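Teaching assistant here, posting this on the class forum so everyone can see the example we discussed in section. The complex has two components, and the goal was to see what a joint structure prediction looks like when all of them are supplied at once.
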Amino acid sequence: MSVETILIVGGGISGITTAVEAAEVGYNTVLVEKNPYLGGRAAQLNKYFPKLCPPYCGLEMNFRRIKPNPKITVYTMTEVESVSGQEGNYSVRLKVSPRFVNEKCTACNACAEACPAERSNEFNFGMDKTKAAYLPHVMSYPMRYVIDRNACKDNSCDKCVKACKYNAIDMNMKPQTIEMKVGSIVYATGWNPYDASRMDNLGYGRVKNVITNMMMERLAAPNGPTGGKLLRPSDNKEVKKVVFVQCAGSRDQNHLNYCSSICCMASLKQATYVREKVKDSQVVVAYIDLRAPGKYEEFLNKVQADQNVKLVKGKVAKIEEDKSTGGVIVEFEDVEGGGKTHERADMAVLATGMEPCVKTNSMLSFEENGFINGGTAAGIYSTGVAKRPSDVTTSIQDATGMALKSIQSLVRS
Amino acid sequence: MADEKKIGVYLCTDCGIGEALNVDELEAVAKKEFKVPVCKQHPNLCSNEGVQIIKDDLNNGEVNKIVIAACSQRVNNEVFNFDPLTYVTERVNLREQVVWTAPKGEDKEGTQLMAADYLRMGITRVQKSEVPIPKLADVNRTVLVVGGGVTGLTAALESSQAGYKVVLVEKAQELGGWAKKMYRVFPTKPPFAEIEQPTIGVKIDAVKKDGNITVHTGTTIASIDGGPGEYKVTIDRNGLQETFDAGSIVLAAGWKPYNASKLGHLGYGKHRNVVTNLEFEQNVAKTGGKVTRPSDGKPAKNVVFLQCAGQRDKDHVPYCSTVCCNVSLKQAKYVRESDPDAGAFIVYKDMRTVGLYENFYKSAQDDEGIFLTKGEILGLKEESDGSLVVEIDNQLLGRKMKIKADILVLATGMVSSMVPDEMSVNNLTPEYIGKMVQRETSDGVLEALEPESLILNLKYRQGPEMPHLKWGFPDSHFICFPYETRRTGIYSAGAVRHPMDAVQATADATGAALKAIQCMELTAQGRAVHPRTWDRTYPEIRFESCTQCRRCTVECPFGAYNEKSDGTPLDFPSRCRRCGVCMGACPQRVISFRDYSVDMISAMIKSIEVPDEGTFVLGFVCENDAYPAFDMVGLNRIAMNTNFRFIPLRCLGGLNLVWIADALSRGIDGILLLGCKYGDDYQCHYVKGSQMANERLGKVQETLDRLMLESERVEQVQLAINEWDKLPGILAEFSKKIEDIGDNPYKGF
């Protein structure tokens, strides 16, 4: 008799989808996420292409489905330590890192107000700071604060503890181990942006106004470091002209051998951020191929129709700082116009690709780029970008299917 | 039990509520105005001790309707969690939406009045609310799969492997669809570099052997009646009909090639050796891998592939079919395998080998006999021997060139099977595919849409097929909930709903099978399907007051109602998504849910104490997006005016015009409707809800005229969940506008 529980590793949009969809069929699901909140990369996006709608809208609806459903158990700040057994009966050990804030937290913000220490805000890719006592982001689920102990002033500081009237802060919280039995496991461990500093020629880290596409999402977001204003990092000046550099790492044998599948649409979407937020702004997109598959073509047409958006076929060779303006000089080959050319702009956005987060695990089989094909044993599956580079809706499609595959494991064993 | 209406009000004084508000006065509102039997304050209601107080009252039988005046209904759900089939629970949001948005220092009185009104509305709501009595259904757990191609076969097998019965209906004489007609397939597995032998035969055999699956080939669907859990499906095989029960449906009717006869400008139909990619494939399959000229059967030495033939083209197929780049790469490899000295030339707009298919593209680039260039066709000539001269603009080299070719292959695209042969994909009637006809009505001859029966033949009042948004693809809640179509229990999958390859179609079919199974299980428990899966209420109709106006049957975004011959709605609760759009549409107010009704909201409006002076605004807000946005205003401690009150609705489409009249006759000066974006890029979780509200608003003029009020007093604003920063400005601006119009003359009456 199989254990009637499915473990889902990763609480981004794919993992949430698998957990919720399987639970709504009637199976118990355990959703494990290493961040202190659910939503993963989707939560960091300002808008989705091609509808230009906010990811929070769909996430909120998923959270609404999670909250009243007793069949879903969520563990944040949790990672899988070990897995053993076989389909229908896996033993798993989870490690829960201390949040230092317990369930008594009312999200009143008193701890953050009292906290004297700051930390780099990784949710905004380090573009601003939070207090050491912080709420990961404004629509966090669960709506509960976290203490970053590494960022505390010193070990004896207890200002937040004193500020909390609810005894919600416990500085003595220890890592916890949870053991459980599950019938099947779905890895929805998602992706990291490719490390842009590895592409020396593109100047990231050296030229101040070169940022990545994920940083651009945070700049444009109303709860981002600039409150949604497109200010360039060097001097907080609003950007008037932006160059998007496609395939920054992707389709490149020295970096990522594959196409990350979303970056063309992401840059076209971000072109609309620039055009909407800054009057008379200009956008240049330098691409190898414009990949707006299927119905997305219509979105490409819409962006293309904007006179102030220039789409140029050509791979960017080099980005340097424009010493006279503090901006950037982007050198590339204009394939159709013929010959080497360059664009001066306030900022360059690198369309960096997606790399799977989990690249080694004895329970999993990987293809050559590190994407997870599935388990080495039956009853283990992968989904979302952990499996293949894909956009949100394709990930959700696949994650819904993986809910069924993981249910089949319980049914047959 | 619940009908004894023992209301308990629990006021939390924590998180700044106690400091900003006089909670004793709120207690007085509950006790004196509403005479609630139990009203208690607690300094930290979400603590174990706080919750225990409520539990004790429940267990002692003193309370069966709970009003928690504390934080937002979006938080502490696991704490304030009381059996929803036994107790009615209402959350009054004093924290995020009153105290945390209160203007600093000044206007303490305004904040207090606001809190009191929200408490009044909360108590009124529970007074009018009853616990649901779930409509448990004896559900038939059989999935009907329509279409026997790769998508349908997959949906059938995956459902069966989860333990469900399947009936698969395919109109062709054999299973396999287009996949069976392929000579080889482009890569389906890592490293995605080489062409593969088709495996469709394995899938067909598995389906045939599966004891859970019944297959009907050469069969079409004559009709589908009923709803999820209780479909009556009638199939037709050569005129012989058979009827059976099904619980849910996967629509996997697939695609058809674009009609190449419209591509005369590319030489199709004119020149003997111009073929579509599908014809090329079939020729190669016939010869067992030899690439030969259609005109004379001679081996082909040079083959040109023209990508996006009639695609990405507003005059033909406006979208990209996603598969054609990979198909042409595959077929270029046929050319090379057929004759190592032969050459293939692919002319593209953009090479769209997305994701790991980059490897496949690379493997073609590594072959010196395959030439690839961005370009456009400039001219085409046929020589006497049937050879072609293709002139192209080679945009990589920046010059024109002529290629002598034995065959020109047009990479034509995919059209959804929902599009009738005689219709153009870019010129279909909106929402329901059909024809515009002249119809005699009591108002004279009017042009009306007559939807066409194509595949499913649903006996639904709104039309026999799935509504489409564009280009004939059945609409679903793209992006976040791609399977949520506008027909509950019917899930479309594969190329019928979006151009896709076999790998994607396989994944899509598996997801659709999950949704079909889930729908049957939720229906059996009397629950709604997505998104309100927690909801066990359903619309109840007071038929004796129905005037057969048909608004509910027309406006339901999901086609949940049929009509009796006199126009009375015939309800199918299992088709219903519980959005309440029908409730909002009904001028007679005959449709209600046990915990949500026109009368309830009217009573809530009437419970508001409208101040005698100053502009006062009532907002109806979507509870899924605008309401959380309002919470975010609080979480960010952005101060707002206190001259408004909000009432959350399941969907703004539930707005009933009687509430506008109620509010205005109460002296409320202006009414603001905050709902989701509508139109092609709609964000409404119920697809048409916010649009319906807007259409209804067009009719509000009548009400306002009757009351002799200005139409500007009612306004709808489209607000996304992340636009909380705009909310204070929207309110201030609206308030200013109303102030300029002047007081509602009914104020004080």
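For the discussion questions: The mean pLDDT of chain B is 96. The radius of gyration of chain B is 31 Å. Think about how each of these relates to the inputs above.
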